[in-house]
Amino acid sequence: MQVRCSRKSISSIVAGLLILPMFTFSAVAQQSTVPEPANEKSNPEFSLRGQRDARTITYDDWQKFCFKTPGTNLVCRTTISGTWETGQSAVRIDLIEREDEGVARLQLFLPVGLYIQAGAKLTVDQRESFQIPFRWCLSNTCIAGDRADPVLIREMEAGQELELEIVDTNLLSVSTALPLSRFASVRKAAPTRTFVQDVDE
């Protein structure tokens, strides 16, 4: 499905749905400071006090949205969202890819109240874990993001379950499992919806 948008509406859609790594200063002014890890591949120095059960999260199907503006390559987001029983957003994971570029980006939207120095940990079918650092927090969400390791993408395409583990402010680990059975087919298929910006004359 293709949706044509004016310059203003496409800007709003891209800002609201895609959220690439830069915010305007007005948004950043409300965020909590997230320290940049000195070495993103190293493990943060802290000791877990244990683990606790996560609240029940219901996940939607994987979907693919694409965005096209004149003079730029197509940008697509393969995404899955989860909500608590209250209907409130709990988790969103995006794989963001730009046409004709070999680098993809993973972006995670998670609730506030986390020990952000620990980052978020992703594991496919109990294989090797991948650490994703937090980049910033707003009043109602914290965003972790990094370049997507090609090994992780391949494992997600072949795997059945993606475990997401975070650490809360009590230093207790919390994990949830996301389905991967449709990730590969959705990523390779035509987008669920494409947003196209019309050129204003």
Write the layout of secondary structure elements.
Layout: E1 2-5, H1 7-18, H2 25-28, E2 50-51, E3 57-59, E4 63-68, E5 75-84, E6 89-98, E7 104-110, E8 120-124, E9 129-132, E10 134-137, E11 142-147, H3 150-158, E12 161-167, E13 172-179, H4 183-188, E14 193-197
Protein described:
The chain has helices spanning 7-18, 25-28, 150-158, 183-188, and strands spanning 2-5, 50-51, 57-59, 63-68, 75-84, 89-98, 104-110, 120-124, 129-132, 134-137, 142-147, 161-167, 172-179, 193-197. It contains four helices and 14 strands. By secondary structure, it is of the alpha+beta class. Strand 10 (134-137) and strand 11 form a beta hairpin. Strands 1, 3, 4, 5, 6, 7, 10, 11 and 14 form a nine-stranded mixed sheet that branches. The chain has a five-stranded mixed sheet with strand order 2-13-12-8-9. It has one domain: Immunoglobulin-like, CATH 2.60.40. The two termini are 25 Å apart.
Give a quick precis of the structure.
The chain is of the alpha+beta class.
- Strand percentage: 35-45%
Let me know the average pLDDT.
82
CATH homologous superfamily designation: Invasion associated locus B (IalB) protein
Structural class: alpha+beta
Q: Using DSSP, what is the number of strands?
A: 14
Secondary-structure arrangement, i.e. CATH architecture: Sandwich
How is the biggest beta sheet arranged?
A: 9 strands, mixed
In DSSP terms (H or I, runs of 4 or more residues), the helix count works out at 4
